Amino acid sequence: SPPGLFLLTSFLLHVEDGCANPTRLVCDKRLIQKYIEEAKDMEKRAGQCQALPALSCPAVLPLVDFSLQQWKSKSNETKRREILCDLALLVGAVAGAQDQVTQECGTRQLSQLYRQANSFLLFLQTFGWEAGPWEPGCSPRSVEQTHVTGIFLTYRQLVQGKLRFFFHDLAKDLCK
User: Fold this and answer.
1) Structural class in CATH, domain 22-129+137-174
2) What's the CA gap between 102 and 94, in Å, rounded?
3) I want to staple 64 with a disulfide (CB 3.0 to 4.6 A). Which of 27, 85, 158, 170 is the partner?
4) Where are the domains of the chain?
5) SS (H, E, C) the chain
6) What does the pLDDT profile of the chain (176 residues) look like in tens digits?
């Protein structure tokens, strides 16, 4: 959709310019809400694809549920690293699913999901964090999934949960 494309483009412009201040992405609550809606739409469209096959090689997905009480007790850097681990595992799962799904509807939805999840991953990796750059090597709690729709569900839950609350926490400092 054109509005979604505009938001994705503006998001990617923030990502590509390493010196860019991500204040708009964090402070404009409409943007994260838009990403949540897009995640819901992708999940719905993937569910409408006819005869999506089960994955012969299961996707390893992060378990993205969390306790809000525990979440609030973590530093923003710890939250960022946790989300990065989840996103890295999710992006890998999407790439693996793309290799297995040949149906056009499914491949189209997986491509969109890959772009969006990878954009968030790049954003969280490259933004000038005080604790330095992220380095891979984490091992988040995970689960194997053979249904393609489970990948979309995990992404929506991640954006709707940890990512939204993380941006909310960052906004307290950045958006005064």
Assistant:
1) mainly alpha
2) 13
3) 158
4) 22-129+137-174
5) CHHHHHHHHHHHHHHHCCCCCCHHHHHCHHHHHHHHHHHHHHHHHHHHCCCCCCCCCCEEEECCCCCHHHHHHCCHHHHHHHHHHHHHHHHHHHHHHHHHCCCHHHHHHHHHHHHHHHHHHHHHHHCCCCCCCCCCCCCCCEEEECCHHHHHHHHHHHHHHHHHHHHHHHHHHHCC
6) 444 444 444 554 444 443 344 677 788 888 889 999 999 999 999 999 987 889 999 999 999 999 999 999 999 888 998 999 999 999 999 999 999 998 899 999 999 999 999 998 988 887 655 545 445 567 678 999 999 999 999 999 999 999 999 999 888 887 87
Structure tokens at 40: 């819901």
Q: Please identify which residue in the block is written with the tokens 């990502």.
A: 15
Backbone angles phi, psi at 147, to 5 degrees: -100, 125
The interaxial angle of helices 2-16 and 104-126, nearest 10 deg, is: 30
Instruction: Give residue 130's pLDDT.
Output: 53
Nearest to 123, CA basis, from 80, 165, 94, 62: 80
Cα 16 to Cα 66: distance, rounded to the nearest angstrom? 30
